[in-house]
């Protein structure tokens, strides 16, 4: 089945934005508050819609029109955002978010650029078989690494793990972080695999850059009782990831 493209006068069902109001480049983030924060960095920014977790803004960055959209937490809901943006004619999507480090050196305040993602999410397997890879666009990955290096923060790059579980539970096995560490995974997050698969199916570009807000294997315990993503060191990494994403989005 060929990718769906909606006409300019159509309205996206859940994002509620008109196709005609979308730029061909979009920055996506999980938090609606972070989307509003990104909008403050744009020229002539205006909010298009706010429906459920999907808040959409329009504006320009360095003279290039861009769309900013929030997608909430988790791959299934985020996939709705990615799919509708692609159907609306967006041809480049970069996700900027937070993630947990898996390798010992990937700790708070660092930036991770994803080359691809392990599909441990629940939605992508309903779109394509398990064997289908979730990979970022190589040119965007290279550009994101270069842009992130200019922030002066520590930068890592590699495959990330996309999973559906945030808080651990004693009732289930959960994620084997140590096994994924041995496999070379650099970080764990919740949406990238869905983005990469959907982008591939639509034949569009996709990339992802993350601020690291902790490391479950470096913590004293894995219960996440002391999890705090609002520390200054994390805020600096979030800002670095966002500006890196914007720079590459319009390059």
Automatic annotation (TrEMBL):
Reactions mediated catalytically: uridine + phosphate = alpha-D-ribose 1-phosphate + uracil
Gene3D superfamilies cross-referenced by the UniProt entry: Nucleoside phosphorylase domain (3.40.50.1580)
E.C. no: 2.4.2.3
Boundaries of every Nucleoside phosphorylase domain copy: 25-225
Superkingdom classification of source: Bacteria
Biological process (GO), any one: nucleoside metabolic process
First-level EC class: transferase
Molecular function per GO: uridine phosphorylase activity
Cellular component GO terms, alphabetical: cytosol
InterPro entries noted in UniProt: Nucleoside_phosphorylase_d, Nucleoside_phosphorylase_sf
Protein name per UniProt: Uridine phosphorylase
Organism: Leucobacter luti
């Amino acid at each position: 089945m060929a990718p769906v493209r909606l006409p300019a006068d159509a309205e996206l069902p859940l994002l509620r934005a008109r196709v005609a109001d979308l730029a061909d480049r979009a920055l996506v983030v999980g938090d609606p508050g972070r989307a509003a924060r990104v909008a403050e960095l744009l020229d002539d920014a205006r909010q298009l819609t706010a429906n459920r977790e999907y808040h959409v803004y329009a504006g320009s960055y360095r003279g290039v029109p861009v769309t900013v959209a929030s997608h909430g937490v988790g791959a299934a809901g985020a996939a709705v955002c990615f799919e509708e943006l692609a159907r609306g004619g967006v041809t480049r999507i970069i996700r900027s978010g937070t993630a947990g480090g898996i390798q010992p050196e990937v700790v708070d305040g660092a930036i991770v650029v994803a080359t691809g993602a392990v599909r441990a999410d629940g939605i992508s397997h309903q779109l394509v078989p398990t064997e289908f890879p979730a990979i970022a666009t190589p040119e965007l990955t290279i550009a994101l690494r270069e842009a992130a290096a200019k922030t002066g923060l520590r930068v890592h790059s590699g495959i990330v793990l996309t999973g559906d579980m945030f808080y651990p539970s004693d009732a289930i096995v959960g994620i084997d972080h140590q096994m994924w560490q041995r496999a070379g995974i650099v970080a764990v997050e919740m949406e990238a695999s869905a983005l990469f698969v959907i982008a591939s199916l639509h034949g569009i570009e996709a990339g992802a850059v993350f601020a690291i807000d902790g490391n479950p294997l470096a913590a004293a315990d894995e219960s996440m009782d002391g999890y705090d993503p609002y520390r200054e060191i994390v805020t600096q990494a979030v800002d670095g990831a966002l500006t890196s994403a914007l720079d590459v989005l319009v390059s």
